[in-house]
Design brief:
14 strands, 17% helix, four-stranded antiparallel β-sheet, five-stranded mixed β-sheet, 5 helices
């Protein structure tokens, strides 16, 4: 079983941004933390960032980042990945000249191996501020295609090899898929 953490290719593809008041609205909505928000959603006005510190131009890819925990994707990506996304989240409308939609992942899987995952935790001792090494439990991720983990529900999205293969096969751009270690459960009493 292979699992990947979604990262964005900021070096080659444009970032997406929203108005400051919409950014505030996302915080008030407590958006993209693994819960459905479609019934409270008002479409955001977005655009591609046009200036970068390195002065290199960037094109809009099939995927872009709009805040932590949200996938912004082209309509082409949404159509091509529909089968893998179904039942694992919700599409949310965006207002833009670009053919993009937002996708809110609502599938939460208790998949982190707490003994092997490494990172800095919040004072609650459960959630992570950041993780330096992700280790997923194979029994928890088998059959999962797109999900979040409870300890990082407001940020990281993980995908399966089937999702990664579909991205490649469809020629979709804008993502870097970072492999995550998947470990078998320890068997007690084995000789």
């Amino acid at each position: 079983t292979s699992i990947f953490r979604i990262r964005y290719d900021f070096e080659r593809f444009a970032s997406i941004t929203e108005a400051e008041n919409d950014a505030v609205r996302l915080v008030e909505l407590d958006a993209f933390k693994g819960e459905e928000i479609a019934s409270r959603w008002r479409p955001l006005r977005i655009w591609a960032q046009s200036e970068y510190e390195d002065n290199r131009p960037r094109t809009v890819g099939d995927f872009a980042r709009l805040g932590a925990g949200c996938l912004v994707m082209s309509e082409r990506a949404a159509d091509g990945l529909a089968g893998l996304l179904a039942g694992r989240g919700e599409f949310l409308e965006l207002v833009s000249d670009l053919p993009l939609v937002a996708w809110n992942c609502t599938r939460i899987v208790n998949a982190l191996d707490p003994a092997r995952t490494r990172g800095a935790k919040f004072p609650d001792g459960i959630r992570y501020i950041r993780i330096s090494k992700y280790v997923m439990r194979e029994d928890a991720v088998t059959g999962e295609h797109v999900f979040k983990v409870p300890e990082r529900r407001g940020s990281d999205i993980f995908v399966s090899a089937a999702f990664a293969d579909a991205v490649t096969d469809l020629g979709l751009t804008g993502l870097r898929l970072e492999p995550v270690e998947v470990a078998e459960a320890a068997h007690s009493g084995d000789s």
